[in-house]
């Protein structure tokens, strides 16, 4: 995407018809060539950590059209289609579990753990509601037992 952005910005006049030579963006040809070399050396991989990613489709086709080599485009598209095709469509990347049964169950369990924490906190707060006095600054609460058994500052 950076290569496509550099190519589209080259010779762009920021002020249009009212601009002068100082308001024109010039991109060095070497910068575009560096981006092209890095991109061609990485494809069909997305990065060192991801083998393949569905986001590469936007790099090899619309909106970027950043790759000029038709064989590399076919290889990248073939890799994406073979590795990311699922039963109901394409995954974003390998081991993507978004909206799958396992992830939904995990999210629900984490959500319930958080709700349990909130319920426990609010029930504690209700029990000790009469024991909390605010000293006027954020985070400076003195919690003390009515009978004076314990006292601590938060």
Task: Report on this structure.
- The chain is mainly α and 154 residues long.
- Helices cover 45% and strands 9% of the residues.
- It has helices at residues 2-9, 29-42, 56-60, 70-84, 101-127; strands at 12-13, 24-25, 132-134, 141-144, 151-153.
- The strands form 2 sheets. The chain has a 3-stranded antiparallel beta sheet, with no helix packed on it. The chain has a two-stranded antiparallel ribbon with strand order 1-2.
- Helix 1 (2-9) runs antiparallel to helix 2.
Produce a short descriptive summary.
This protein has 154 residues and is mainly α.
Helix content: 40-55%
Task: Let me know the largest β-sheet.
Answer: 3 strands, antiparallel
Look at the helices and sheets and give the structural class.
mainly alpha
Radius of gyration from CA coordinates: 28 Å
Mean pLDDT across the residues is: 75
Low-confidence stretches: 131-154
Numbering strands along the chain, what is their spatial order in the largest sheet?
Answer: 3-4-5
Global geometry: flat
Topology order in helix (H) and strand (E) letters: HEEHHHHEEE
Strand content: 5-15%
The count of strands amounts to: 5
If helices are DSSP runs of H or I spanning 4 or more residues, what is the number of helices? 5
Compute the separation of the termini in Å. Answer: 49 Å
């Amino acid at each position: 995407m950076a290569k496509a952005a550099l190519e589209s910005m080259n010779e762009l006049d920021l002020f249009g018809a009212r601009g002068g030579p100082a308001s024109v963006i010039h991109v060095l040809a070497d910068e575009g060539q560096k981006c092209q070399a890095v991109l061609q050396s990485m494809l069909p991989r997305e990065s060192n950590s991801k083998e393949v990613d569905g986001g590469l489709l936007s790099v090899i086709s619309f909106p970027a059209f950043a790759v000029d080599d038709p064989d590399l485009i076919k290889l990248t598209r073939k890799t994406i289609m073979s590795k990311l095709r699922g039963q109901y469509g394409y995954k974003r990347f390998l081991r993507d579990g978004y909206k799958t049964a396992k992830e939904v169950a995990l999210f629900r369990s984490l959500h319930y753990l958080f709700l349990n924490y909130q319920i426990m906190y609010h029930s504690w707060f209700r029990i000790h509601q009469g024991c909390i006095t605010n000293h006027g600054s954020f985070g400076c609460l003195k919690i003390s037992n009515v009978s004076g058994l314990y006292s601590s500052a938060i």
